[in-house]
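Methods — Computational structure assignment.
A single polypeptide chain was analysed. Its primary sequence is given first, followed by the predicted tertiary structure written as structure tokens.
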Amino acid sequence: MPISLRITSDKEGKIKRAAGRAGKTKTGFILEAVDEKLGLLKNRERIIRESAGWLSHEEAEELRKTVRTFRKIDRGDWK
């Protein structure tokens, strides 16, 4: 079903650049964002939380420490 959105040219430019970095079209990028907002797309943290149920407490804590690095943002990657 076609949907029309009105967004500023500045925002469209940001979407276009972000989609390019992700290797997606603007449409694909926007659809993925909608899916994520609706909870239809699992992010890395959610996948780890769901799959870690079989780990011992110690293993789960080690996994938490290891994946903390994914929360850090390197500003150099966002140019």
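Note: The chain has two domains: 9-41, 42-72.
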